Amino acid sequence: MTESRGVIARLIDCFADLPGIGRKSAERLAYHVLRMPRDEALAFADALRAVKENLRPCRVCNNLGEEDECTVCRDPRRDRSMVCVVEQVRDLLAIEHSGAYRGLYHVLQGRVAPLEGTGPETLAVDGLVQRVRAGGVREVIMATTPNVEGDATALVVLQRLEGLPVEITRLARGLTVGAALEQANREMLVDAIAGRQKY
What we know:
Layout: H1 2-16, H2 23-35, H3 38-54, E1 56-57, E2 64-65, H4 71-74, E3 79-86, H5 89-98, E4 103-107, H6 126-133, E5 139-142, H7 148-161, E6 167-170, H8 186-194, E7 197-198
Parallel strand pairs: 3-4, 3-5, 5-6
Antiparallel strand pairs: 1-2, 6-7
Helix pairs in contact: 1-2, 5-8
């Protein structure tokens, strides 16, 4: 009995380590897994393993996928003259869910946040600069979070793209200042993309 409680406690600790999950929610999730049929629980575990073993950054844009290029970069229907710059993959997913954008992306894999120990050197900007230099990119849309860190991140990208033949725009500020893209609803994202402005 003590051993089984130790296993459950470890599962609760794992769930509690997830962002936004408190101790009580972690306990509910752990006991839900305990009550799941064996095949469902193992399928859940397999899905977690597959995410860690099979997903890797796209060699073009840093989105996650199971191949060298993600499904967005491989899609021939995409407008290859537009690149939307986002901080994280979850921001890309939020914009994709809106259905308002049909261009390509570049994921910076972070943001400038000195209090969190992340500076400009941690951003994946080199790949974006190479893409613009290679030609074919007409517009770069800055879609960083509309707050101090997001604006600082956008400034780093702007400085790196300075002098290159590309128009730089940003999402319209229909998004609430300080709001995360992943929390914006579809209508807010549609308006923000349609009303983007020159940077």
